[in-house]
Specification:
The chain is α/β, with parallel strands linked by helices and 673 residues long. It is built from 17 helices and 25 strands. The strands form 4 sheets. A 9-stranded mixed beta sheet has the order 10-9-11-12-19-18-17-14-15, sandwiched between helices. It binds beta-D-galactopyranose.
């Protein structure tokens, strides 16, 4: 297990460096991440490489058992490179090149940029690949972050045309599949196609808000840009792997940015690494990003390359709150409980300089260790004690939620109930609802194995391939329980609407057909009644409303307006399993009741430790026993009720009946058999 900080020795005087290294050593952390913005220190002039400035730091830390994660510095192409090859600069959707002076100002498809990136990566790999004090490599820094994932420069445009040609083979096929007859968009040759940005709306940001663009070409552009970033990343992966046996990864932006399909991008990496900046002041830390991270490589431990460290100033201007005492420690342990193997705070000491001057860190610019530093020190101590349990325990979740980037992108291209419906937030709501009723779940991609799960949840399977339809049918016919929700199987993989009745091609599986759809705004809510097993809920539709056909076996009906007595939730036995179709969204409390009931009826494990909503419980299996990681996110001490007998893994005390957990406290309890 790796725990530590990001650190920037290139900014420091000799005296500062000595001071910081002493503090780092005394803190008990075991990992430092360095180098990601230091291209000009590594290569101040073309072809002139220097590593001595970093070697000394790595060795100094390494002698005391602190490992280094070395980053390739390609997020910051230096002035000499931009001057020589101005065409490497990133071009945004207004056609404006991003000038030198910030970071990430490059086009990932540009040949010259790739050549120089390959060379610096080669040199770093060669120099550090076998260094005993190195623990791994990070490629670049937050690929696509800060709106740099959708370059439209001439190189990208040309490559996009070739990408389309490769996919569609001939122009007739492209015209047909992309619906190009609409608005006379048919082309005679691939050379006539452009990246589909600004064809109607012009926004200054590289977000997808272009509702009138051709949806097929736009989804292809999303895929092409994601593929291009992955290709750029993997040029570096390949080079580093020539020189090292240490793990190679990158720091993704997780579910915050979504310009890259991380299920694809992590295939050639050794693990999924990502950055996470949750608030730590009087708030629960959302564990959905961890479940997502764990699912990227089918349960393999993930690395958190950057994590919150403190409050104060912030790059974006608004500032951040300081963590509650104890919150930093609690959050770090929580991330390891959810499957992290590495967790590095951003960053060790506040920068007095540059765009991020005075940003939060573990230690302030004056270098004086204060409470965050001492809390990090205590955390390192706890982690040492729990390492055997974390490293040797497994997740045994029986419920999974499956996600997909095509659906995410398609819902950004043609939003439904825009601003109220965000696909990843909806998935998060389902995940949290399960967690709050005592069911831990996994978050996986459409490609992963469904059969190991008793219940599979398909939230809004908007873009659904023919293969995925078959996979779902197979899963249910062999005994799986499927919960599909509104707007499922609406579009094919070309982002074109299916003309079969909805859920297209799945009416047999769900035993229902969608008769009518509409968004739910403030003035058209309807009440509905859900009756399923022991649960009877009266609730209100939200976001999107579908009326299901009269021939469905209903588990939910509308109660009001012209929809009265019409179906909204259908239930259908299919082969050995059961499929539910849920034609609307509803509030979290009612969703929890509904999900709990389905889980209970299907023998899903529901943990025996109950507290309240703000107590999170993660269950893992360790040496044949259940081990629970319990986190109190209430803003006061809380009491949990333990049924059965448990041992507190840290104190060794026996736990029975009622037990108190401090504000921002945690408990690691092993079931005693
Ligand atoms: C991250 C970035 C870091 C730093 C940090 C500040 O997105 O990777 O370099 O800028 O944000 O919170």
């Amino acid at each position: 297990m790796y725990y530590g900080v990001s650190y920037y020795p290139e900014h420091k005087t000799k005296a500062e460096l000595e001071h910081d290294i002493r503090l780092i050593k005394e803190s008990g952390i075991n990992t430092v991440r360095m180098g990601e913005f230091a291209w000009n220190r590594f290569e101040p002039n073309e072809g002139e490489f220097h590593f001595e400035w970093l070697d000394l730091v790595i060795e100094n830390l390494g002698m005391d058992g602190i490992k280094t994660i070395i980053c390739t510095p390609t997020a910051c192409p230096p002035a000499w490179l931009v001057e020589k090859h101005p065409d490497i600069l990133y071009m945004d959707n207004r056609g404006v090149r991003r000038p030198f002076g910030g970071r990430r100002h490059y086009c990932y498809n540009n040949k010259s940029f790739r050549k120089y990136s390959a060379l610096i990566t080669e040199k770093i790999g060669e120099h550090y690949g076998g260094n005993p004090y190195v623990a791994g490599f990070q490629i670049d820094n937050e690929l696509a972050q800060e709106g740099t994932g959708r370059c439209v420069c001439p190189t990208c445009s040309e490559k996009f045309r070739n990408w389309l040609k490769n996919k569609y083979k001939n122009i007739e096929n492209f015209n047909r599949r992309s619906g190009a007859v609409f608005w006379s968009q048919e082309c005679n040759d691939f050379s006539q196609i452009n990246p589909p940005v600004n064809t109607i709306e012009v926004g200054a940001q590289q977000q997808i808000h272009a509702f009138y663009e051709n949806p097929t070409v736009r989804l292809d552009f999303e895929r092409f840009s994601s593929d291009s970033l992955i290709e750029f990343q993997n040029l570096q992966t390949k080079i580093l792997k020539k020189y090292t046996k240490y793990p190679v990864t990158t720091n993704a932006t997780g579910i915050a940015t979504n310009s890259i399909d991380y299920y694809k991008s992590t295939k050639e990496l050794d693990c999924y690494g990502f950055d996470y900046y949750p608030g730590l002041r009087d708030t629960a830390v959302d564990s959905f990003p961890y479940a997502f991270a764990r699912g990227i490589k089918a349960g393999k431990p993930f690395w958190v390359m950057e994590f919150m460290s403190g409050g104060g100033h912030r790059l974006g201007g608004s500032g951040r709150l300081q963590p509650n005492p104890g919150a930093l420690k609690q959050a770090v342990i929580q991330s390891f409980a959810h499957g992290a193997q590495m967790m590095l705070h951003f960053q060790f000491r506040t920068f007095p300089i540059g765009a991020e001057q005075l940003n939060y860190a573990i230690v302030d610019a004056d270098g004086v260790p204060r409470r965050r530093y001492y809390e990090m020190k205590e955390t390192a101590e706890v982690l040492r004690k729990i390492e055997p349990i974390i490293s040797n325990s497994k997740f045994v979740n029986e419920v999974a939620i499956c996600l997909d980037y095509d659906t995410h992108w398609a819902l950004r291209i043609k939003p439904v109930n825009d601003s109220s419906f965000y696909y990843f937030d909806y998935c998060r709501k389902i995940y949290q609802s399960l967690s709050e009723v005592g069911v831990n779940s996994d978050v996986i991609s459409y490609d992963q194995d469904f059969d190991q799960y008793k219940i599979m949840i398909l939230p809004t399977g908007f873009v659904l391939s023919l293969e995925m339809r078959e996979k779902l049918k197979n899963y249910v016919s062999h005994g799986g329980i499927l919960l599909g929700t509104f707007l499922t199987s609406v579009k094919n993989i070309d982002n074109v609407g299916y003309v079969g009745s909805l859920p297209s091609g799945l009416s047999d599986l769900f035993g229902t057909t969608v008769e009518e759809v509409e968004p739910v705004f403030e003035n058209n809510h309807n009440h509905l009644k859900i009756e399923e097993g022991d649960c009877s809920i009266t609730t209100t539709d939200e976001i999107w409303s579908e009326i299901l056909s009269d021939d469905s076996e209903l588990a939910g009906k509308y109660l009001t307006d012209y929809k009265k007595d019409k179906g909204v939730i259908a239930r259908n036995s299919f082969g050995k399993g059961m499929a539910y179709y849920i034609g609307t969204d509803f509030c979290k409390e009612d969703l929890k009741t509904f999900l709990l009931n389905i889980c209970k009826n299907n023998g899903i494990f529901i943990h025996e430790l109950s507290g309240n909503d703000k107590v999170e419980v993660v269950r893992r299996r360790y040496e044949g026993k259940d081990v629970y990681f319990i986190f109190n996110f209430n803003s006061e001490e809380t009491e949990i009720h333990v049924s059965g007998m448990f041992i507190d893994c840290l104190s060794g005390k026996v736990l029975k009946g009622k037990h108190k957990i401090d504000r921002n406290g945690y408990l690691i309890a092993m079931k005693s058999v």
